[in-house]
Specification:
heterodimer; A: 346 residues; alpha/beta; Rossmann fold; 2 domains; 7-stranded parallel sheet; 16 strands; 29% strand; B: 265 residues; 9-stranded mixed sheet; two-stranded antiparallel sheet; 6 helices; 13 strands; 26% helix
Chain lengths: 346, 265
C-alpha cells in the first residue's frame, strides 16, 4: 500500500519503452527516499517474461494484465485497469511517460480518481510543504511531509513552476522521453509478479475502440543519442539557412536540431524540435545557431557538454550558459566552421 | 444530423510573455496579455465544419470557459462556421487546474443536452498539458480519440479517425457519442466568411455561471483543484566562464583546431 507506481509502456515485440525504464530509475530513488516499494503496471498481450526487462531497475512488484485485446493500447481498458488497481492499492505516486499513450491515459486516470496530474515534469523531488488551509472561519498553516515536488517549465517556458498535490492521491506526473536518466540498479534484483484477472478490472464494455490499422516506424534520426548536435533557431532566418546547418551537421557527423520557433516557421521537421515540448538531448557538443535561448529550449539541452553559441545578439540568454560565443551572422560563421573543419581534420 | 460541440480556449500568446505577466501568487495575470484563439482548437473547429458540411442540418455549438473577454473566440468561431456560442464565466470558476476545468466543462456539456461528438484541440499553448480533453471524456463516461489528424468517416453511430501515435499513425474506429482531440498537424481552419461576419456581428451568446451548470462548489475553481502551485521562479541562468569570439577567420580557425585537438569533434 501507498507505494510508488510506474505505468509501463510496451511497444512492438513487447519491448519496454525507454521512457518507462527512465521513470523506473527515478521511481526507485523516490521510493527509497519515502521508505516505500517500487511497483509497476504492465498492460498488454503475451507478457510472459516481461518482468526480466524491469527487475534490474529495482522493481519490487510487477502487476500484469494480460489479454490479446490489450495490445495495441486503447484508452478505456487501460484506464479501467489502472484506476481499479489504484482503488485497491492506494499508491502515493504514479509516474507515466509524457508520450501519446501517457498523455491519453494519465488525464483519464486522474479524472476518475480526482487526483492531481502534472504534465511534462523536468524534475521530481521529495520535500516538505506548507499551505494555509481554512479550518472553520480561520486559516491555519498545515504541514505536509514528504510530498512530491513536480517541477516543470510553464507558460511558454518563461517560468519554472513547482506543483504539489497535498490532499489527493496518487500524486501523478508525466515526464518526457529522455528527460530522466535510466540506470540499472542491480542485474539480479528480484521482485514479485502478480497476474491479475483481467475481467475483474476491465468491463467488457471498455473494448469499444478498434485499432484497424497501425504504422510505426523507427525514428528517422538519432537526435537523442547524438554526440554532436547542430541546432538552429529563428535567427537562422530561412529554410535555405537550415541547408547550411545541414551541411555543417553532415561534415561533423552530427544530428540537426531546432528550436520551437524554427519549427513553427516551417523551416525544419517537427520531430527535430529540442526543448521541453520536443526532444531532450545531452550531446558532447551543442552548436546553437541563431537560438536566443527561451527556457523551454534550454530545458532540452542544458546538460550538453560544450555549448557553442553563434549569434549576432551578444545579449541572447543562451550566451550565458554557452562555453563559446561566436558573435556574428550564421551565413558567415557557419561556412567558416565548415571550411576550417575540413582544413584541420585531415 | 449531428450535434457537435467544439471546446475552445482563449489563450495568452505565450510566444510573447514577460515576467511582468505573473502575479505575486504565481498565477498568470491573463488580463495583462495579448490573447489568441488556441491554435489546435482551430484545427478542431475545421473538423467540425467539415462534419457539418457532410451532414446538413448539424449544429456546431462552441463552448468556452474564461473571462468575459473569452467570448471573442466564440465570435471568431461563428465567423468561420459555428452556429452558436456558450460562454462559461464566473469568479467561482477561476483559479481552476485542468481537473476543475474539465469538471466545469463537463457540467456545461450535460446542460447542453444531446451531443454526438465533442471536438477540441489536443492541447492549449499556455499549459501544453493535453489533459482537459481526456478529463472531460472521463467525467462524461465517453470514449475518446486523441491526437486526431483527420476524421475519415463519421455518422450518428460510428466514427473512424486517423490519429498520430509515437513514431507513426493508426486508424481507429469507435462508437458515438465520443470526444475527439485534434492535433496541430490536422487541416488548418478555414478563414472567416464575409457573409457570416455581416450576419453575426451583433450575435449574442449564452452566458452561464457556476449556478447555471449546477456545479458542486467543492469541484470548481481553486477548491476543486488537486494541484497547487508551490513556487514559481523566473530562471536565472548560472554564470559560466564563457569565451567570446568574433567571426574572424583567425578566431574560428583556432576554435575548430582546439576542438579537434581535444578530440571533442
Amino acid at each position: 500500500m501507498n507505494n510508488v507506481y510506474v505505468y509501463i509502456e510496451i511497444g512492438e515485440g513487447n519491448k519496454v519503452a525507454d521512457v518507462s525504464l527512465e521513470l523506473l530509475t527515478k521511481g526507485r530513488k523516490l521510493a527509497s527516499e519515502l521508505g516505500a516499494a517500487l511497483e509497476c503496471i504492465c498492460i498488454g498481450s503475451e507478457l510472459e517474461g516481461i518482468e526480466k526487462q524491469l527487475f534490474p531497475y529495482g522493481v519490487d512488484c510487477v502487476h500484469k494484465f494480460d489479454d490479446p485485446r490489450l495490445f495495441p493500447y486503447t484508452s478505456l481498458p487501460h484506464t479501467s485497469a489502472v484506476v481499479n488497481l489504484f482503488k485497491e492499492e492506494q499508491p502515493q505516486i504514479c509516474l507515466m511517460g509524457a508520450t501519446v499513450i501517457g498523455r491519453d491515459l494519465g488525464p483519464r486516470v486522474s479524472s476518475a480518481l480526482h487526483s492531481g496530474l502534472t504534465a511534462d515534469c523536468t524534475q521530481l523531488e521529495i520535500d516538505d510543504f506548507e499551505m494555509k488551509v481554512k479550518q472553520g472561519d480561520e486559516f491555519v498553516t498545515k504541514h505536509y511531509e514528504k510530498q512530491l515536488m513536480q517541477i516543470r517549465p510553464a507558460f511558454g517556458g518563461s517560468i519554472i513552476a513547482t506543483i504539489v498535490n497535498p490532499e489527493h492521491r496518487p500524486q501523478m506526473a508525466t515526464v518526457r522521453d529522455g528527460v530522466m536518466k535510466k540506470e540499472i540498479l542491480s542485474a539480479d534484483y528480484k521482485g514479485e509478479v502478480i497476474n491479475h484477472e483481467v475481467g475483474k478490472y476491465i468491463p467488457e464494455t471498455d473494448y469499444v475502440v478498434k485499432v484497424l490499422d497501425r504504422h510505426v516506424e523507427a525514428a528517422k534520426h538519432n537526435l537523442k543519442g547524438a554526440n554532436i548536435v547542430v541546432a538552429g533557431g529563428y535567427g537562422v532566418g530561412s529554410k535555405e539557412g537550415f541547408d547550411l546547418l545541414r551541411e555543417l551537421a553532415h561534415e561533423l557527423h552530427a544530428e540537426l536540431g531546432a528550436s520551437r520557433a524554427a519549427v513553427d516557421a516551417g523551416w525544419v521537421e517537427h520531430d527535430r524540435q529540442i526543448g521541453q515540448t520536443g526532444v531532450t538531448v545531452r550531446p558532447k557538443v551543442y552548436i546553437a545557431c541563431g537560438i536566443s535561448g527561451a527556457i523551454q529550449h534550454i530545458a532540452g539541452m542544458k546538460e550538453s557538454g560544450i555549448i557553442i553559441s553563434i549569434n549576432n545578439d551578444p545579449s541572447a540568454p543562451i550566451n550565458q550558459i554557452a562555453d563559446y560565443n561566436i558573435c556574428g551572422n550564421i551565413e558567415e560563421v557557419v561556412p567558416k566552421l565548415i571550411k576550417y573543419y575540413k582544413a584541420n581534420s585531415k | 444530423m449531428l450535434n457537435i460541440i467544439v471546446l475552445a480556449k482563449q489563450v495568452p500568446d505565450t510566444h510573447n510573455v514577460g515576467s511582468e505577466a505573473m502575479t505575486p501568487e504565481g498565477t498568470v495575470n491573463r488580463a495583462a496579455l495579448p490573447t489568441v484563439f488556441n491554435p489546435e482548437d482551430l484545427n478542431a473547429l475545421e473538423q467540425a465544419i467539415r462534419l457539418k458540411e457532410q451532414h446538413p442540418g448539424s449544429r456546431i455549438t462552441m463552448l468556452t470557459m474564461g473571462l468575459p473577454k473569452a467570448a471573442e473566440v466564440l465570435r471568431e468561431g461563428i465567423y468561420r462556421g459555428a452556429d452558436e456560442g456558450i460562454l462559461l464565466t464566473d469568479r467561482a470558476l477561476g483559479g481552476a487546474d485542468t481537473l476543475a476545468t474539465s469538471y466545469s466543462l463537463a457540467q456545461a456539456i450535460r446542460k447542453i443536452g444531446k451531443v454526438d461528438i465533442i471536438l477540441c484541440g489536443r492541447q492549449a499553448i499556455d499549459g501544453d498539458t493535453a489533459q482537459v480533453g481526456p478529463q472531460v471524456a472521463e467525467k462524461l463516461g465517453l470514449p475518446q480519440i486523441t491526437y486526431t489528424e483527420e476524421i475519415l468517416e463519421c455518422d450518428e453511430n460510428h466514427i473512424r479517425c486517423r490519429r498520430h501515435i509515437d513514431g507513426g499513425v493508426e486508424t481507429v474506429e469507435a462508437p458515438m457519442p465520443i470526444l475527439v482531440t485534434v492535433n496541430g498537424s490536422a487541416a488548418p481552419c478555414r478563414t472567416r466568411n464575409v457573409k457570416r461576419i455581416m450576419a453575426n456581428k451583433r450575435k449574442e451568446f449564452t452566458v452561464w455561471g457556476a449556478a447555471d451548470i449546477e456545479a458542486d462548489p467543492q469541484q470548481i475553481g481553486k477548491a476543486g483543484s488537486p494541484t497547487n502551485v508551490k513556487a514559481v521562479k523566473s530562471i536565472v541562468f548560472k554564470a559560466k566562464e564563457t569565451k567570446t569570439l568574433t567571426d574572424s577567420d583567425e578566431d574560428i580557425n583556432s576554435l575548430v583546431r582546439e576542438l579537434i585537438e581535444s578530440n571533442t569533434i
